[in-house]
Amino acid sequence: MEDGSSQLSAEAVGMLRGGSRAAVTVAVVALALRGAVTPGKPGTLQTSGTASGAEGALEKAVHAVLHRPLPLRDLIEAPRVQAALEEVRRPLVEGGLWRERMPHRTRAGKQAVKELMGGLVLPDGPHAAHDVRELAWDVPERLLAVALYGDAGVAAVVPHLAREGGLVGRLRGDGGKVARGEGGHAYSCGGGGVV
Asked: What is the Cα 146 distance to its own chain's centre?
């Protein structure tokens, strides 16, 4: 893509598709895929005690804040995570993909998400998690699926964490209707609101 959106991190794609909640969810899943975040008490997340290998400011902030079990909403609102989210937003604003005032994605941001969805279709149905394993997606593809498809992506990529860690469920900024992509596959196309 000429606007550089093909070079966006999965966290930035999550921000464009579903705001702060989606970006933080991508960071949590990235850490979980490395074994650094696990479910805590029901509906909470925590570090697993292993070295995180966190990449980027948002992952590092999430890992640091999860020294005690927290629900996703509290994690998003933590000042350190909010500061890191600003680092995710800034290049989007500079690239014309996100509006600073009345925060949400621009028309170019919406188009970037649409084009990325066309390149990575998430399996749907009751066996989506199995189908994702069968596709043998690498970590960047799994993170992009989480960024693009929200709750459906989380449930397919890390079903245990989705259920036990409270990652699946609507909060402001990650709701949305279900639309059909090529081949009739369902995906969430929530607005670009901010938590």
From this structure: 5
Instruction: For residue 153, give Cα distances in angstroms to 139, 168, 174.
Output: 13, 10, 12
Sign of CA dihedral 144, 166, 49, 87: positive
What pLDDT was estimated at residue 173? 39
Give the three-state DSSP class for 118: helix
Alpha helices in the chain (DSSP H): 10-33, 56-65, 72-77, 79-94, 107-119, 128-135, 139-157, 159-164
* 38: helix, strand or coil: strand
Torsion (CA) 69, 83, 16, 62 in degrees, nearest 10: -20
If one compares 89 and 180, the residue with the highest pLDDT of the two is: 89
Q: Are 149 and 187 in contact (CB under 8 A)?
A: yes
Q: DSSP secondary-structure letter at 70?
A: B
Per residue in 99-134, pLDDT (tens digit) is 988 778 999 999 999 999 999 999 988 888 898 889
Closest CA to 113 of 86, 156, 144: 144
> Rounded to two decimals, what is the model's pTM?
0.83
Counting Cβ atoms within 10 Å, is residue 117 exposed (0-12), middle (13-18) or buried (19+)? buried
